[in-house]
């Protein structure tokens, strides 16, 4: 601080006294255009199905998914991030790169119904593998280099289907480079990559795994996802991804990792996303349903904190509701 203010000449409360002053000097604002809504499309259902641990979030059928995307676009939500549940899972996760795979088909329908909405696709294997891991299983672990070719294949098939951006979440070393190369080689040099660069092995992913039935059948993901104590390692992960061609980098989860978001933004000045994950949604929802917290206020507070820490865009299961709240009432 160069000019330390002094009481009583300076009284910080002067600008807090009215909502109009508060709005004028607010340093951070939430804008639906900065939010990304995760969308689950399930090949096994005909009607939208609730997810028990995420009240208000649904798995949609292929027939319904475009309608939901259109609703998001109408509310001004910035983008949708698609996750698929295939008709059947196998050890290779072949549903992930099938030409007529569930995500590939959903992208086509969404782009037709809501051409203005940015459609992002998750690039990973865990929703498609029978063992639930994010890569090729060899022995007791996941084989990094054998997985790269499959991730590239998934990304390419999604780009061919019309995805606007691909988002690799497998936490394999070299995944961004492998995907960039495959996309460039096939005429998709303009398709950006948003990398889940610093994805921690978190206890907050449980509801998501329920939604897509992707809990690992054996072991856990600590062999490839990051260890929560580490911040400097996150910076190395981000540096690598940027070198490999990531257009956006991501920190995940958001809650508990705001320091990581802040450092990443400060250090690299790169477009930075934060993922408010399923468990964060579930925590807020559960307390709100019991009447223990005020849901709107807590949601806005949590997302404002994520933006304040430096995130440019936020992936959140609250995207649709927030957009609706803002539309109805203006800034909350
Ligand atoms: C898997 C993946 C996960 C999420 C997005 N992609 C979870 C995991 O690692 O099991 C989590 C999203 C959430 O919890 O909302 N590649
Ligand atoms: Zn995965």
Which key terms come to mind for this protein?
332 residues, alpha/beta, TIM Barrel, 10-stranded mixed β-sheet, 11 helices, globular, binds ligand PBG, binds zinc ion
The total of helices stands at 11
**Share of helix, binned:** 25-40%
Ligands, ions, cofactors: ligand PBG, zinc ion
Instruction: Give the total of domains.
Output: 1
CATH fold topology: TIM Barrel
**What is the CATH architecture annotation?**
Alpha-Beta Barrel
Estimated radius of gyration: 20 Å
The average pLDDT score comes to 96
Outline? globular
**From N to C, what is the helix and strand string?**
HEEEHEHEEEHEHEHHEHEHHEH
The CATH class is Alpha Beta
Question: Could you name the ranges where pLDDT drops below 50 across 5 or more consecutive residues?
Answer: none
Fourth CATH level, the homologous superfamily: Aldolase class I
- Structural class from helices and strands? alpha/beta
Distance separating the two termini:
30 Å
Written overview of the protein:
Helices cover 39% and strands 17% of the residues. It has one domain: Aldolase class I (TIM Barrel). Strand 4, helix 3 and strand 5 form a beta-alpha-beta unit. 45% of the residues are buried. The chain contains 11 helices and 12 strands. It is α/β, with parallel strands linked by helices and 332 residues long. The strands form 2 sheets. Strands 1, 2, 3, 4, 5, 8, 9, 10, 11 and 12 form a 10-stranded mixed sheet that branches. It has a two-stranded antiparallel ribbon with strand order 6-7. Ligand PBG binds next to helix 6.
